Amino acid sequence: MRDILFRGKCEDNGLWFKGYLLGDEITGQYFIHASGNSVNESFKVGEENMRREFPVGLKAR
């Protein structure tokens, strides 16, 4: 099974992170949990700065 990764720009420091998308339905906030990050840390991202990351070499049908 393939992991679906997202990219998001952190609202705190403006850096881009790639990882798993986490959404809070109550507050409507989105977070990126950085892939390969051994620390349980997530970064708050804005909805307008969030994109799905497509694997290299994957062709659209």
Explain briefly what this protein structure is:
By secondary structure, this protein is mainly β.
Describe this protein's structure.
Strands 1-2-3-4 form a 4-stranded antiparallel β-barrel. It is built from no helices and 4 strands. By secondary structure, it is mainly beta. The protein has one domain.
Distance from N terminus to C terminus (CA atoms, Å) equals: 19 Å
Instruction: Report the count of strand segments.
Output: 4
Overall number of domains:
1
- Rg, rounded, reads 12 Å
| SSE pattern, N- to C-terminal | EEEE
Q: Which characteristics define this entry?
A:
0% helix, mainly beta, 4 strands, 61 residues
Mind sketching the topology for me?
Blueprint: E1 5-10, E2 16-24, E3 29-34, E4 42-53
Antiparallel strand pairs: 1-2, 1-4, 2-3, 3-4
